[in-house]
Design brief:
alpha/beta, D-Maltodextrin-Binding Protein, domain 2, 2 domains, five-stranded mixed β-sheet, 17 helices, about 40% helix, transport
Length: about 425
């Protein structure tokens, strides 16, 4: 979640078999539209360890509303889910789920291949006008809707309030301020200022946005990651490590980062709402009020963080489409979103949920909603998810000094021009 937007190897697009099935118990008759639902729905959930208990409970709650339907809940590791789904769908559908929780960038990729069912005019799009416009934007491909938004997110700066107070520093508003704060933190507490995750390309985005750049200019069909802002972004990330303000690791970044902040070994991390519950489980946050969250520090051109999130998609080869549409609607309903937010502090995609008193009173939700409103939308193109692979190859090398920022940016740019078809330049 980000458990990591780990780039997954591309699977060759294959024609979708007309006989592909989603359910796995041989009883997939969904009944007539508008009638009583029956059969089974297999749901692949990609939530992390801190979230999956809540999501399983909510998913199984669908059976209470539709006693004739059996929900087969399967938690699939986020980093494996896309390739696993493509393999299942591309080999005729055997073992593929009826409903898949997809990272927002996967939706266009899977719709382009033909593995997703369009949702327009189905029960899945229940009260679609209630969705946040930014959340809904990532669900459409070539004029059709292929997903319903489940959660929306962005990145922020998590910090240990006591550690910063002991060092006499305020939460930094820029990378320059973070470097200065880290020196005081090290002097006063002996701890490192920031753990910077280096094995996930998503953590590079605040740097390039902060320098006023972007990966692509989709309107001009131009690769921009190797322009000056892209080079400055790699340099800014590298500078945090060489200055001693940050520590990093090219492997096991998620676990190392979470252990560092939870155990009080570092004062700050960059993370999203999906990490709140896991972070609060650490010994450094026995007093939950000790965790603070502020915007990601600004670069030379300002502050910027990426828009992320999770959608719910329906497999085009499902033999129980009626129940699958209804399940997608249920899992993205205002009621389920409110329960998810109350228990996990995840951001709803429905405007109405923010009027819920418990949701409105959640300080972390309040912060991240404001941050999401300012977040930079990622390229909504089929190749959107694949853009992370080239960054992932270069980012660890830059942080460890094995690759220069200039070489890294140029390598990523070259990889993009090979990836993108048509008249991209």
């Amino acid at each position: 979640m980000r458990r990591g937007i780990a780039a997954t190897a591309l699977v060759a697009a294959m024609a979708l078999a007309a006989t592909a099935c989603g359910g796995d118990d041989g009883d997939n008759g969904g009944g007539k539209p508008g009638g009583k639902l029956s059969g089974s729905v297999t749901y692949w959930d990609t939530s992390n360890d801190a979230e999956k208990g809540t999501y399983k409970k909510l998913a199984l709650g669908f059976q209470k509303e539709h006693p004739g339907v059996k929900v087969n809940y399967v938690n699939v590791p986020f980093g494996e889910a896309l390739a696993k789904f493509k393999n299942a769908a591309g080999s005729g559908g055997s073992g593929a789920p009826d409903v898949l929780r997809t990272e927002v960038a996967w939706t266009h990729d899977l719709a382009n291949i033909g593995y997703l069912a369009p949702l327009d005019g189905t029960a899945a799009l229940d009260n679609a006008s209630d969705y946040l416009p930014k959340a809904a934007a990532g669900t459409k491909f070539k004029g059709k809707t292929y997903a319903v938004p489940q959660v929306i997110d962005t990145l922020g700066l998590f910090y240990n309030k006591k550690m910063l107070a002991d060092a006499g520093v305020e939460p930094p508003k820029s990378w320059t301020e973070l470097k200065a704060a880290a020196k005081k933190i090290k002097k006063k507490t002996g701890k490192t200022g920031l753990y910077l995750r280096g094995d996930d390309a998503y953590w590079y985005l605040p740097f390039i946005y902060g320098e006023g750049g972007d990966l692509l200019d989709t309107k001009a069909k131009k690769v921009t990651v190797d322009d000056k802002p892209g080079v400055k972004a790699f340099a800014a990330a590298r500078d945090l490590v060489t200055s001693g303000a940050a520590e990093t690791d090219a492997t096991d970044g998620w676990d190392n980062m979470q252990n560092a902040i939870k155990n009080g070994d570092v004062a700050m991390t960059i993370n999203g709402p999906w990490a709140i519950e896991d972070t609060l489980a650490g010994k450094a946050f026995k007093d939950k009020s000790n965790l603070g969250v502020v915007p990601v520090p600004a670069g030379g051109a300002g502050q910027g963080a990426p828009q992320g999130g999770q959608n719910l998609t329906v497999y085009a080869g499902s033999k129980n489409l009626d129940a699958s549409y209804a399940f997608a609607a249920y899992m993205s309903s205002a009621d389920v979103q409110a329960k998810t937010t109350e228990e996990l502090s995840l951001l709803p995609t429905r405007t109405s949920v923010y009027r819920n008193k418990k949701v409105a009173a959640n300080a972390n939700v309040k912060f991240f909603k404001a941050a999401v409103d300012k977040a930079v939308e990622r390229p909504w193109i089929p190749e959107g998810n694949s853009l992370f692979q080239a960054i992932l190859v270069q980012f660890p090398g830059v942080l460890t000094g094995k690759t220069s920022p200039e070489k890294a940016a140029n390598s990523v740019g070259d990889a993009y021009r090979k990836l993108l078809k048509g008249d991209w330049k």
